[in-house]
User: Fold Regulatory protein VirG from Sphingomonas sanxanigenens DSM 19645 = NX02.
Amino acid sequence: MNCFHLNAGNVRSMTNRCYAEAVSGNNGGQVDHGFHPTYLAAHDNAIELRIYPLMTSPNIVLVEDDPPLRTLTARALQENGYRVQTASSAPEMWIAFENGHVDLLLLDIMLPGTNGIDLCREIRRRSDVPIIFISAKNSEADRVIGLELGADDYLAKPFGARELVARVRAVLRRGGLERQPSGPRDNEDKFDGWAVNYPRRELKSPDGAVVPLTGAEFDLLASFLGQPQRVIARERLIELSRTRLGDSSDRSIDVLVSRLRRKLSTEDKPAPIVTVRGVGYMFNATVERS
Assistant:
């Protein structure tokens, strides 16, 4: 029985084996999302409880123009429980965005027509969706450019399935989509009129406007707020941000700090991030917990 194609006649005939297949995806990775949990609930609550995790799996859009690599990458993600939409060009990517919510974008840089760099710029003007660049270009300059544009990570080709999935999980986890056990933390921090809401991973400016942050920028800000008015060495910031940065180097941290500074600066006051030459950075503001 194909447990992913249901109708009123076979819903109640699903066995425990089928429940397990529905949850784990042991049907070769071919998942049909056409049914709806509400429909299932009307027939059998047990099925609803088992199916729901599948329906709420993060949705990933993969943009890659190499067909074999696109297929292998999508398969690796599907086998680890993710929903995947594939695209080979910019127009196909925008169609995928229009079809529904996107939790993460895997974006090749060398694409026909509009390349990944230009696409990233356009996406960042519209959305703060997490982005992982995938590219055969692996120089420090290429990685830095990707991070400066707002990418959350940079994965160099060739890459293995384990590294791919680990980086995807890390980016989604930092975005709150891969829930992992963690220690208690305050719901909100405030400093200089700014407000940081941790459950929503949201930053509000003194005038109440929401300031878009990438996952890496939010994580860096959280690291500073956890140790205000204390010098944090670059090496420590690299360690804290390692799962976010494809290039774990002083230069990558400097780029990330520069991006965060720009977003925390106002006409009246510069960002409270102070450079301690030769050592690292300090968040020079009083933080109020709530």
In short: The chain has eleven helices and 13 strands. The longest strand covers residues 59-63. The CA atoms of residues 23 and 53 lie 7 Å apart. The domain at 59-174 is CATH 3.40.50.2300 (Rossmann fold).
